[in-house]
Fold this protein.
Amino acid sequence: MDWKTPRSQRDVARTLRSNMTGAERRLWSVLRKRQVGVKFRRQVPIGPYVVDFLCHEARLIVEMDGWSHGSAVQQSRDVARDVYLRRVGFRVLRIWNCQVMEDIEGVWVIIREASQQFPHPDLPPQAGEGAPAARPVLRSSGRDA
């Protein structure tokens, strides 16, 4: 894909859905059809970004990180992206590709638990919601192979 060619975010998302990595395909196989209890969509445009997996109901984004996310430059970009996504009301859960390939059941549990924590305690209540109870924030760990 020629990233220098101006394209709409929708076109970029469509292309990314057609060209998912092996880890993304594997994770999608357990996220689709509400297998974790909530609906996820894949490769969804949000502002200037296209996120890997999104659950609107839980205000949760799951981002897949491969080897390139280990560089200082990419980590800086990821921080800026996460700040923006949190500012517009989403939680971001980052999962390493190797976690998905080596322990899909463990990743499923982490995502299921995170998706059940809605509305998130660190986010202001949305219209019509009461104040949420405090709950722990799950964080992913691990390294990419």
Q: What stands out?
A: The longest helix spans residues 72-87. The two ends are 25 Å apart (CA to CA).
